[in-house]
TrEMBL record:
GO cellular component, one term: cytosol
Extent of the signal sequence: none
First-listed, main subcellular location of the protein, grouped into a coarse class: cytoplasm
GO molecular function, one term: rRNA (guanine-N7-)-methyltransferase activity
NCBIfam families named among the record's database cross-references: rsmG_gidB (TIGR00138)
Residues bound to S-adenosyl-L-methionine: 97, 102, 120-122, 167
Protein localization: Cytoplasm
Name of the encoding gene: rsmG
Domain of life assignment: Bacteria
Family the UniProt entry places it in: Belongs to the methyltransferase superfamily. RNA methyltransferase RsmG family.
A Pfam family: GidB
Annotated protein name in UniProt: Ribosomal RNA small subunit methyltransferase G
The entry's keywords: Cytoplasm, Methyltransferase, rRNA processing, S-adenosyl-L-methionine, Transferase
Amino acid sequence: MNQMTMPVLPQMNELWQKTLNWQPDESQQQQFQRLYELVVEGNRSLNLTRITEPMEFWEKHLWDSLRGIARLLPANHNSAENPELSAESVLKAIDIGTGGGFPGLPIAIALPHLSVTLLDSTRKKITFLETVVPSLGIENAATLLGRADEIARVPQHKQAYDLAVLRAVGAAPLCAKCALPLLKNGGLAVLYRGNWTAEEETELQRAIEHLGGKVESVEAFTTPTSQGARHCVYLRKVARQFDRPVR
Ligand SMILES: C[S@@+](CC[C@H](N)C(=O)[O-])C[C@H]1O[C@@H](n2cnc3c(N)ncnc32)[C@H](O)[C@@H]1O
């Protein structure tokens, strides 16, 4: 057996459980393993990621993708306390600038009730994902080629999503400008960041004032094996743009 056919991805059941209060089942483990193999294979012709070591892939692609939406994983959301986060109310998600499928593909695998749109403006990334999605047997994810600002003007996508996730797409104000027009009123954007400064938060606040968004919370944490610094910025869409008075 070569490295590509062995289940080389660490299972990490204890760490999944301890850090996210969740564990993938057998079929989700297999999908993560196959995703790993396809990304390593795809990397030979496409510049998808620098992270190809199994342990690093687990932490920086799989775990990191799911940490941002940990509150939506079964057992973590309490729909009575937090109705806008219940599994029943978060149905449509979009991963803006998904690249090789992160964080959108691990999210689609972990939350099969969610319908996930994988958006990217680069044709070759979408072509890659068009083969990955069926190859993993994922039925709740679809690819979409285009720029977020253009897609947000298409009636089918404008204010159509409950959840938007963005990782490594650009500065936070740009991410907010991409995400908020795609969200329904009450929808949530998760900006996956490394470090996060007070200056960045001020700039973000300024940028979202006119877009009907508010910073609901910022979570700081470290990754579980290499202790890398991470922040997730949660933005709530509180008003549709056209609800706000034009000054
Ligand atoms: C550095 S990659 C990050 C990929 C992935 N999110 C990750 O964390 O591994 C940024 C991706 O965002 C895409 N992108 C940048 N601006 C975009 C936009 N305005 N609309 C859609 N995709 C965009 C690029 O084509 C690229 O694939």
